[in-house]
Design brief:
single chain, mainly alpha
């Protein structure tokens, strides 16, 4: 396997690992999220805790979106590399 293919696969693996870590982190955050709306003032502590969770998830979402697009882009690069390699072999 050429060195360029190894580098491409390593970059792809790092991006996939980064995306997976972000998904796991978001999943651990949303595990404690409630789907209820607290209208009574006696639930201010719960409301504050839910607001913290929502703000953390909101900070992770842009990074997760970027990671997804980077993985897709790198997958296209890997596929293009092998298509170009196949074309070169048949010439």
């Amino acid at each position: 396997m050429p060195a360029s293919a190894i580098v491409i696969w390593c970059v792809w693996a790092v991006l996939v690992l980064f995306a997976a870590v972000l998904y796991i982190y978001r999943s651990s955050l949303t595990r404690d999220e409630e789907d209820q709306i607290f209208l009574d003032d006696s639930f201010n502590q719960e409301r504050a805790a839910q607001a913290v969770i929502v703000s953390k998830v909101a900070r992770v979402e842009p990074m997760l979106k970027l990671a997804r697009w980077l993985v897709v882009a790198m997958t296209v690069v890997v596929a293009a590399y092998y298509v170009v390699d196949m074309v070169r072999q048949f010439q």
